[in-house]
Specification:
The complex is a heterodimer of chains A (633) and B (371).
Chain A (H helix, E strand, L loop, with lengths): L2 H17 L22 E4 L2 E4 H13 L3 E2 L2 E2 H10 L10 E3 L2 H7 L9 E3 L1 H4 L3 H13 L7 H20 L7 E9 L2 E6 H6 L1 H12 L8 H14 L29 H7 L4 H20 L2 H18 L5 H13 L1 H22 L2 H29 L7 H21 L5 H21 L15 H34 L4 H39 L8 H21 L5 H25 L13 H25 L8
Antiparallel strand pairs in A: 1-2, 3-4, 5-6, 7-8
Chain B lengths: L1 H13 L2 H35 L3 E4 L3 E4 L1 H20 L6 H23 L1 E8 L3 E16 L9 E4 L8 E4 L4 E9 L2 E3 L13 E3 L12 E8 L2 E9 L6 E5 L2 E27 L6 E12 L4 E7 L4 E3 L2 E10 L5 E9 L4 H20 L6 H5 L1
Antiparallel strand pairs in B: 1-2, 3-18, 4-5, 4-13, 6-7, 7-10, 8-9, 10-11, 12-13, 13-14, 14-15, 16-17, 17-18
Classes of the chains: A mainly alpha (633), B alpha+beta (371).
């Protein structure tokens, strides 16, 4: 079954979910519920077991670009999608960045170009969107424009939304499942049918033995219902709400997790076991609809007890830690604290205030504490070295840079350590935040990276090396700015000497660690690809950093450059790191395909342009003064 | 006296860190250029043009030093630096060690380039093979018997040019190359057994050397007769039977075979994905390693866990399923006699530069002042 067919069906299913149950009540008993306990339920997504809380956050980030929308927390929004779809109808959740999509769908634009729209607002244009998305998906990815890519993205988001609405539909009373019995007409859910299958069969027998000899009307209705339960529907749109693990359903030969609907329709297990699992889920839904917090939480607890007792692979502590990690948002806090620390130290320089300086030091240390805490928490959750993807390399590099900055401050380079460490930590965490909005940041590892030892040793070392070079470059900026703007004098020269020593030491640290990381990468490549060195772009990037750093030391030794030249060299070193880190990813060639990224070219070239401008302007200003040590060499 | 001064001057220039600076700068340029060149021309072409070359010709007439030339210059610079500039002193021990390590690394990379072999081994499930093929290198294989198990002779085709003649030892035959194409395609209509109606259409070389398919048209001469117009194409699955002087021979143009002193049987190939995803978690081949003398043992080759045996290393590289549904594993075979040189040299460099920078933390003259 292809995606197109499934999309056709999902539009129907969404309409069913949103319309059959009628309008959402303004005030529901469930609206006051707390969903914290619901967030503890384990689910598998893209190969990783995670709490439903994380799943909900990633989902909302995908839909809306943020983890909270219109006052709804991510888990509350997910609870609504699962248990009360009509209530989500008017929530403006679908982020549309390109208004041309709206034109293509025939939907009027509301307010600013980048805005969020509800399902109700988009509904009139869904068929057009589907047509555009299908046509766009036939194009090779390289030939798709922004509109085509966005159309496919929006199509997939709405598809996911519709599929999730259907996840617990088996527990909903469905007007299609009705039976006229002596007591009157009754409406059931699919799950009611499963639970009462034996009774239905018994009833069928009773009615078929009717003295009239003809098949009476109720018997025909019962047969229809039995057929419904025994003949699963062909289209199963929900492949996302995969919360039933193989061990929970007692099928240890399989590794795939399935959805409640799949368990319901395609179960291979004895019916009592299926009913037992689904009953627990039904009680959760029941607790939700009654708005009974205690009953809701108790039902979730009982389900969790069954889940955790069935498998040792699901670690309750990891799930709880992950929820804690998301609520703590350590990198967000660290970023803010770094920013405030830099501000405090800057103000301390302006007002010559010791209190502000101490406050800055305290803030940067506290920020570092949150930062380190976040990295440790991630390790506890994934049990992998915290450098498995680009997001994590940013987080780890910024941690290393901040640590080096604090060490510099401790070695009495007053203010400079906090300013450079805090500022670079802040900037790198800002960039990391951009990757965090793209979804799960704790992805599983592809086969070639699936080696904790090599990953930890190679990537951590090389990232530490990058951190040394980056901080050295930041200090290079400080050195050059001081040369340009601070009046000359002995104090300034002492200060410049201290900065120069720090640039030299950090450059040396960067060279040694980047070299060690490159060797470890070479050994890893020898183990998995059969060669130590292959001129792959990523390898070449690391080589360029090493060569540049070695060049600086030799040029200084040869007398071609002195302190100012070293500062310029350190600034260029940051450009080399940025190119090695992301520039080579943009090329899209080589064996390091797991690190490829798109959409950063403008930012990268903008950054390089600014750095080159800084070099030119400072060089021009220093040349104008004709000082002996104002130019490289 | 003058000669001595001259030598000292030359030694000073050749050992100068300024020469190193220029060399490193050129190397950076070549590395960046070569990396960008890969995007349009592929890794092999970039390696040949920038990283394995002595001179690079820009626009066909402007020479620029290639990586080999720059590295050789740096090697000379290093030798002179070690002997004339660095000198023996405990403070310079790290520096010296790092530079000797770099010499070893440069020499090691030359040795590896010249002596290593990379080949590919493709094995279907339950099949056994005792050879690997070298991508991009073609050979003419000639058999005397129909069993085709052991080639009588193989001739490499790398240097073949139109009009060349080669004798095939132990067969009494010789060939004359009428046409040879490093990359070509075969026209449809015609079969390997009949050259009539079939021709070879030359193509430009592909970005990856291993993707070229060679083809040749030969004249085969026996002691008392010859057969002209024998067309051989690299993708023909079976050898061609040629009768010459009433004797049958079998000819095939194929990728160069590297025979191994052992055989491998693929028991099972497995690709494991992370549950509920298409993300591969591991690729692994369970093989039976059959040594000469009847000894055999089971081995599991997987990503990051290669098999090292009899001087070669076999890495899990790829896999495919053939049209008949049979799973095949693709292993990369590497034979590199100087494999450990990079390890040793890198260790020396790392220890050397670490010692060098650490020694700079100790202020000079401290020892003396204590006295």
């Amino acid at each position: 079954m292809n995606r197109k067919t499934r999309f056709h069906s999902i539009l129907g299913l969404m309409a069913a979910s949103l319309c059959l149950l009628g309008p959402a009540a303004d005030l529901r008993a469930s609206s006051a519920l707390n969903h914290r306990q619901l967030g503890n339920i384990p689910i598998i997504e893209n190969g990783r077991i995670k709490p439903l809380d994380t799943f909900a956050r990633n989902l909302l980030k995908r839909f809306a670009g943020r983890s909270r929308i219109e006052g709804y927390s991510a888990i509350r929004y997910l609870a609504l999608l699962l248990m009360d779809p009509p209530a989500t109808r008017d929530i403006r959740v679908f982020l549309i960045s390109n208004p041309e999509i709206l034109n293509a769908m025939g939907i009027p634009r509301r307010g600013k170009a980048r805005n969020r729209y509800s399902f109700s607002e988009l509904k009139p244009g869904l068929w057009r969107l589907q047509s555009l998305a299908i046509q766009s998906s036939r194009l090779p990815p390289a030939e798709r424009g922004i509109v085509e890519t966005e159309a496919i993205g929006l199509y997939n988001r709405i598809y996911t939304c519709g599929a999730l609405m259907e996840s617990l539909a088996i527990f909903r009373s469905n007007p299609e499942i009705h039976l006229t019995l002596p007591g009157g007409e009754k409406i059931f859910s699919d799950f009611d049918l499963l639970v009462n299958l034996e009774k239905l069969k018994e009833l069928q027998k009773q009615y078929s033995r009717h003295p009239s000899g003809k098949n009476p009307l109720p018997a025909r209705g019962i047969s229809r219902l039995i057929r419904r339960i025994e003949t699963p529907p062909e289209n199963q749109p929900d492949t996302f709400f995969t919360i039933i693990s193989p061990s929970l359903r007692g099928d240890t030969r399989q590794t795939a997790w399935i959805t409640p609907s799949a368990l319901f329709y395609h179960h291979q297990q004895p019916r009592p076991q299926v009913v037992r699992i689904l009953s627990l889920l039904e009680r959760i839904a029941e607790g939700y609809h009654r708005g009974d917090q205690e009953g809701y939480d108790r039902a979730i607890d009982r389900y969790l007890q069954l889940v955790f007792s069935s498998s040792v692979k699901i670690r309750p502590s990891a799930l709880k830690t992950e929820i804690f990690y998301h609520r703590l948002a350590p990198f967000q806090r660290a970023k803010i604290l770094y920013g405030l620390a830099v501000l405090a130290v800057m103000l301390s320089l302006v007002f010559r205030s010791g209190v502000l300086y101490r406050l800055g030091f305290f803030l940067v240390i506290t920020g570092f504490g949150f930062h380190l805490g976040g990295v440790v928490l991630r390790f506890l959750i994934t049990r992998k070295a915290p450098v498995t993807n680009l997001f994590e390399t940013f987080v780890f590099t910024s941690l290393s840079v901040a640590l080096l900055g604090i060490l510099l401050e401790w070695k009495k380079t007053r203010n400079i350590g906090i300013i450079t460490g805090g500022l670079s930590g802040f900037v790198l965490l800002m960039i990391a935040g951009r990757y965090a909005t793209q979804g799960d940041t704790m992805t599983v590892l592809v086969a070639v990276l699936n080696s904790n030892f090599w990953l930890a040793s190679h990537v951590i070392t090389i990232v530490l090396g990058y951190a040394g070079i980056i901080l050295s470059g930041f200090l290079g900026h400080v050195y050059l700015l001081q040369r340009v703007f601070r009046p000359s004098g002995k104090r300034r020269e002492d200060r410049l000497n201290r900065i120069d020593q720090a640039i030299y030491a950090l450059q040396a640290f960067g060279l040694v660690l980047t070299f060690l990381g490159t060797i470890l990468g070479g050994i890893w490549a020898d183990q998995s690809w059969g060669r130590f060195w292959g001129w792959d772009p990523k390898e070449n990037g690391a080589l360029v950093i090493l060569l540049w750093s070695a060049l600086l030391f030799h040029a200084r030794k040869g007398g071609w450059i002195r302190k100012t030249g070293m500062a310029y060299g350190a600034v260029i070193g940051v450009i080399a790191v940025s190119l090695a880190w992301f520039g080579v990813n943009l090329l899209g060639v080589g064996l390091h395909s797991y690190g490829f990224t798109t959409g950063i070219a403008h930012t990268l070239f903008g950054f390089i342009g600014l750095e080159l401008l800084f070099i030119l302007v400072t060089a021009a200003l220093l040349t104008g003064r004709r000082r002996p040590d104002s130019l490289p060499g | 006296m003058r000669k001595k001064f001259l030598f000292q001057d030359i030694a000073r220039v050749l050992s100068s860190p300024r020469l190193t600076t220029v060399g490193l700068f050129l190397l950076i340029l070549l590395t960046v250029w070569g990396t960008l060149y890969q995007v349009d021309h592929g890794l092999y072409a970039a390696q040949q043009k920038f990283f394995h070359s002595w001179v690079i010709w820009i626009f066909g007439y402007m020479p620029l030093p290639g990586s080999r030339l720059v590295m050789t210059a740096l090697l000379v610079n290093l030798f002179f630096a070690i002997f004339f500039r660095l000198g023996l002193h405990w403070r310079r021990l790290g520096n010296l060690l790092a530079h000797i390590g770099i010499v070893l690394l440069l020499l090691g990379s030359f040795i590896i380039q010249l002596s290593s072999l990379t080949a590919r081994m493709v094995i279907g499930e339950k099949e056994t093979t005792g050879h690997a093929v070298v991508p991009g290198e073609w050979e003419l294989a000639v058999w005397k018997q129909a069993t085709l198990t052991h080639p009588v002779q193989t001739l490499p085709t790398d240097e073949w040019k139109e009009g060349d003649s080669y004798a095939i030892p132990d067969t009494g035959l010789a060939i004359t190359v009428t046409a040879y194409y490093p990359n070509c395609r075969s026209s449809t209509g015609g079969s390997p057994e009949s050259a009539a109606g079939r021709s070879l259409i030359p193509l430009p070389s592909t970005r990856e050397k291993g993707k070229n398919v060679a083809g040749a048209r030969l004249t085969i001469r026996g002691p008392s007769g010859s057969v002209p117009g024998i067309l051989l194409y690299g993708l023909d699955p079976d050898p061609r039977r040629i009768v010459i002087d009433s004797r049958a021979f079998y000819f095939q143009l194929r990728l160069r075979h590297h025979l191994l002193p052992f055989r491998l049987e693929l028991i099972d190939f497995k690709m494991i994905v992370h549950p509920n995803s298409v993300i591969p978690k591991s690729y692994q081949s369970r093989v039976l390693l059959k040594k000469t003398g009847g000894l055999q043992r089971e081995v599991l080759i997987s990503m990051n866990k290669p098999l090292r045996h009899a001087g070669v290393t076999l890495y899990q590289s790829s896999y495919f399923t053939s049209d008949d549904g049979l799973e095949h594993t693709v292993l990369t075979l590497v034979r590199s006699p100087a494999r450990l040189l990079p390890y040793l040299s890198c260790l020396m460099i790392f220890v050397g530069i670490s010692l060098h920078f650490l020694s700079q933390l100790i202020p000079p003259g401290k020892k003396g002042s204590k006295k």
